[in-house]
Amino acid sequence: MSHNKSKIRKLTLISLLIVTPLGFLTKFYHGPAQSWIDNYAGDILYQIFWCLILFLFFPTYPAIKQIPIWVFIFNSIIEFLQLWKPPFLEGFRYTFWGRMTLGTHFDWQDLVYYLIGCFFGWFWLRQLWRKGKEHEKTS
């Protein structure tokens, strides 16, 4: 089983090396559908990113289902917190890292894209698990 987790972690790191730059690129993209890519494609990739980060630390079969649920719940709470506008949060929200982690304004549509991102995150984790299991069978 340790070979399986080792392979899964390696595949998860490779996945993060793909998803992370893509997520940042959505914030700097200029072209067709710029607003959608910035706001919603970025939301989808952000959910996948957090699913992968958590799976890196908890590469278990039950985690494949649990991680996307918790990522959705946590990020939905963060979205609703955007309705709260205390000065200390507002200052942070208008920095690059604040926009990346907390967002700047509440948008109901974000929740839909969080759900889509968590679905893709679940699917991605499932694929990583399968690849890890295939590696275990051939080792």
UniProtKB/TrEMBL annotation:
Keywords assigned: Membrane, Transmembrane, Transmembrane helix
Bilayer-spanning residue ranges: 12-32, 44-60, 67-84, 111-129
Organism from which the protein derives: Floridaenema evergladense BLCC-F167
Lineage: Bacteria, Bacillati, Cyanobacteriota, Cyanophyceae, Oscillatoriophycideae
Domain of life: Bacteria
Protein name as annotated: DUF2809 domain-containing protein
Listed Pfam families: DUF2809
